[in-house]
Write a structure and sequence with these properties.
The chain is of the alpha/beta class and about 300 residues long. It folds into two domains: about 180 residues, Leucine-rich repeat, LRR (right-handed beta-alpha superhelix) (Alpha-Beta Horseshoe), CATH 3.80.10; about 130 residues, Leucine-rich repeat, LRR (right-handed beta-alpha superhelix) (Alpha-Beta Horseshoe), CATH 3.80.10. A five-stranded mixed β-sheet has the order 1-2-6-8-10. Strands 3-7-9-11-12 form a five-stranded parallel β-sheet, with no helix packed on it. A hairpin with a 2-residue loop joins β4 and β5. It is elongated and about 65 Å long. The chain starts with a helix and ends with a strand.
Length: about 300
């Protein structure tokens, strides 16, 4: 690897600045680090180069790469304005089949069109702005290396936005990161005597790896473990009766769940987007409740077994 290649990777801290956030030079509160290296300045200017982009005549206010299959920087910042017009949308197929690895969308962009990143085989990371309101179906399809998508906090519990994500074509290994919600709770300790885990109680505890719920617990609330991306093991007590809607949504590391004999109800989409889930064990009393099991959102690859 030559020196310029090595240095170009150091522009990541500059590209990670939220375009209009408090760490942005546009906010007037903080200045970015001073860059004295010509190679770094050149790489950053290239990432933000408006000459790479165009507006489709049929969609004013939208944007796409002029030549997505041509020479494109590995890291791109989509310009918030082009030809004097504010950009509100990534056009369908805007970066399709390009060689980009990281993309930052600025504040003001509200929509990502269908197939916008389709076939971006090297794409690893995308940062979406707080203004984002619509992800069209298949916008991230055939991007197998996409490992991280940074999202606005409101995507956590908005069902419409969650449905957009489900149809966006994200690979199963992709991690979702919600701005401002990171919490530290590797293996929580539950006090004796609790009967309910409240709604959103552990939502987006991204580094939680294991949770052993205590005997006596009867209910897990809606969204209780939403977005716990590292959660690989959940031990449910024999006393558990109810699991709320979307209780374990976006727990992509979870591989197995054993539902106790007393379980009475399982909320809709309780295990939706648990893409690594391979086995779910139910008591024999659930054999005739196939519709409820299907509504819980288990992945197709998950084996449903009965004791």
């Amino acid at each position: 690897m030559n020196k310029n290649d090595d240095k170009s990777r150091n522009i990541r801290p500059y590209l990670s600045l939220s375009p209009l956030g408090e760490d942005s030079p546009l906010s007037g509160e903080k200045e970015p680090p001073v860059m004295e290296d010509t190679a770094l300045l050149t790489a950053l200017a290239r990432a933000m180069d408006p000459s790479l982009w165009e507006q489709p005549r049929s969609e004013p206010g939208s944007i796409r790469l002029k030549s997505p299959r041509g020479a494109v920087p590995e890291e791109l910042v989509v310009p918030p304005f082009l030809d004097g017009r504010q950009i509100l949308r990534l056009a369908p197929g805007a970066l399709a089949e390009s060689s980009v690895r990281k993309v930052i969308l600025p504040e003001g962009i509200r929509e990502v069109g269908a197939d916008a990143f389709a076939g971006c085989s090297l794409l690893e990371e995308i940062v979406l702005p707080d203004s984002m309101a619509l992800l069209e179906p298949g916008c991230f399809s055939s991007a197998p290396r996409l490992a991280r998508v940074e999202l606005p906090d409101r995507y956590r519990l908005d069902r419409k936005l969650g449905a957009d994500l489900a149809q966006s074509g994200l690979p199963g290994s992709c991690r979702l990161s919600f701005r401002g919600t990171r919490r530290d709770c590797r293996e929580p300790v539950f006090p004796a005597g609790i009967r309910r885990v409240e709604q959103q109680a552990f939502a987006v505890c991204e580094n939680m790896r294991r949770a052993v719920l205590p005997e006596g617990l009867e209910e897990i609330g809606n969204f209780a473990f939403f977005g716990c991306s590292d959660l690989a093991e959940i031990v449910l007590p024999s006393t558990l009766r109810r699991i709320g809607e979307e209780a374990f949504v976006f727990c992509p590391s979870l591989t197995e769940v054993l539902l106790p004999d007393r379980i009475e109800s399982l909320g809709k989409l309780a295990f939706w987007f648990c893409v690594s889930l391979k086995r779910a064990e139910f008591p024999a009393s659930w054999k005739g409740r196939q519709e409820e099991i299907e509504a819980a959102g288990f992945p197709e690859s998950c084996a449903i077994v009965f004791r």
